[in-house]
Amino acid sequence: MVPMTRRVLLAKPRGYCAGVDRAVQTVELALERYGAPIYVRKQIVHNVHVVKTLEERGAIFVDETEEVPEGAIVVFSAHGVAPVVHDEAAGLSLRTIDATCPLVTKVHKEARRFASDDYDILLIGHEGHEEVIGTSGEAPEHVQLVDGPDDVANITVRDPEKVVWLSQTTLSVDETTATVEALRARFPKLIDPPSDDICYATQNRQVAVKEIAAQSQLVIVVGSENSSNSKRLVEVAKDHGADASYLVDYADQIDPAWLEGVTTVGVTSGASVPEELVDGVLERLAAHGFDMVEEVESVRERMVFALPHELRRDLRSA
């Protein structure tokens, strides 16, 4: 018998985006500059391994601002916070470092601008997601959440000629497009945001997974269950050719049964996943005979974001 050739198609780009890299570095450098503990409101990024690693170094993650001791240092996560959170922090005399991704900040500014012009803002996103909560909090009396195309029928607006849509940055591009089309069918005068709200990294990782999924029977996405962009990669892989796709935090979560009869496995990772976790997956696949790895580059990324200004100032004065 001719031995079965087994290969891995490794998507590029994958893993850390500029916003996540900035947020994680923010906590790491804050620990070095100020010493432990450093408080972080919510998970700095949605990845189990990253949060655990930072906890081991002295970061303390809290759900609410009131859990931070008065006068302590608190970092706001990459997903952004509503203005009321800044007010809460000021009331406790907290030293804040805002690690909100600049692309999320852009959406917050759009929400404030359209609200000041008295538009109804239709925010496409998933209910309860931290980014959605933060953006909605910028203009709560003007923002309505639209959770997918099926939710469009539930929307009511004051003036159909003064309606704009904005979006959570980590959604599926295809799903967002479908939701916008449904909204426009109801509100023909619907205004688009000044620039695309879906973040460049989310789009690029979806483009890359589409390319490998078309050639793979199985796609493994490294990422955490609470990571919106990672879960979207699983959906995109299934929609674009893969027979199956699974989300795993660690290599040991790969079920050998998934690999039975498979000759090509696609591998990618969400925007909050460190590369070491992908390396672990590749090692596990190699142990099962998938030792031929081909990197498939779809888009080149060069985006870099500066650290939060509060941290840059203190690092310069150190």
Description:
This protein has helices spanning 18-34, 48-57, 83-91, 102-116, 130-136, 173-186, 200-213, 228-239, 275-287, 309-317; strands at residues 7-12, 38-41, 59-62, 73-76, 95-98, 120-124, 143-146, 163-167, 218-222, 244-248, 264-269, 292-297. The chain has 318 residues and is α/β, with parallel strands linked by helices. 38% of the residues lie in helices and 18% in strands. The strands form 3 sheets. Strands 10-9-11-1-12 form a 5-stranded parallel sheet, with helices on both faces.
Coarse shape: flat
Radius of gyration: 21 Å
In the predicted model, the low-confidence regions spanning at least 5 consecutive residues are none
Number of strands: 12
> What's the arrangement of strands in the largest beta sheet?
10-9-11-1-12
Give the helix tally: 10
Main sheet characteristics: 5 strands, parallel
| Helix-strand category | alpha/beta
Could you state the order of secondary-structure elements as H and E? EHEHEEHEHEHEEHHEHEEHEH
Distance between the termini: 67 Å
What does the average pLDDT come to?
Answer: 95
| Share in helix | 25-40%
Assess the beta-strand content as a share of residues. 15-25%
